[in-house]
Amino acid sequence: MRLFGPVTLIALAQLFGTSLWFSANGAADDLALRWQVTAADMGWLTNAVQCGFILGTLTLALGGIADRFRASRIFAVSALAGALFNGCFAWLADGLGSALVFRFLVGICLAGIYPMGMKLVVSWAPERAGAALALLVAMLTLGTALPHGLREVGATLPWQWVVSVSSLLALLAALWIARLGEGPYLPQPARTIPTPHSRPGFHTPAVLQAFRIPMFRAAALGYFGHMWELYAFWTVVPLVVSSTLLIEQFPGMGVAGLSFGIIAIGALGCVVGGALSRKIGSAPVALGALAASGCCALIFALLWDALPAISLVILLLIWGATVIADSPQFSALAAAACPRQLVGAALAIQNAIGFAISVISIAGVSALFELSGPDAVWLLLPGPVFGLLGFILSLRRSPTVTDQNR
Hints:
Elements (H helix, E strand, L loop, with lengths): L5 H12 L10 H8 L3 H24 L2 H4 L2 H22 L3 H15 L3 H11 L4 H25 L5 H22 L33 H30 L2 H4 L4 H27 L1 H22 L5 H17 L1 H11 L5 H30 L9 H15 L10
């Protein structure tokens, strides 16, 4: 008998596997001292992971790999390789150049962890995809925050040891998922994926047909706006903490401790959003969270230098909770809208485009932060605005579409 149910086990594996994502950011202070990296350089270290992730997800989606091979096998192999490349970053990188290479390879591996984790959850619990994916993304959020927490706990340890903990966690995730296997609610992997609208001599990847489905297209546009904001926000959280009154007013927590709290509270936002999705549906939860995070971005941009420290902390905690709560609901809507045999590829292509968007916003906000400090968060606001408008306008053209994730 398993100690945990399948969905819980997948969520824990997601937590451990995605701790690889921001492992370099948890060592930012050490890297600044040893390699003289700047805020813009840290943005590029994050973007190296994003670029690798984009390449990996495009390969999975357009090559049909995501639906031709078992998701559990892809997850396990990717987690093992990610652990290896993360360890190489910790122990073999000797400067920014080699670090970028290893972080890029980690990003490729993460493409087999995050979207495949979503596919595994859907394969075990399709009837409650919104809540199950919310738990999964909650673990992704904790995985993102975990390197900051590890740095705070292991403040006296060399940064290489702290980063290496993420590799050990990813190894555990690989073992768990390899043992768990597939759920019963998705078709068995096919050797080829049929493309119903292809013409002889002209091959169109089957996954692109998903964008013809109104709900999938609406969910994808909402997700793209969300992705403009999300990873750029997570990237600048330590910079915001160290550039405002927070570090002076809460010296006992330090930059790493405060950053961990602001990012990790997103896990609670995901869980609450997942519970609400069971009652009111995924679409209202996704749009409400996206609107709330946009309001937080606007208030912070206008008042960050005027608010008392306690008000600023509360604002950032609300922002941290809402900035990620929409993600699992957009993914649940997308998964429910597309054909079952394309779920893995459709989620992978949505991830690939979303992370490509995040590369631009991360580079922009990191460079702007060096010039204007926390005022740079103005650059995050267009994401929620575009996501809301894209979702609503897409469905206005298809008035018969309803939310299926209740």
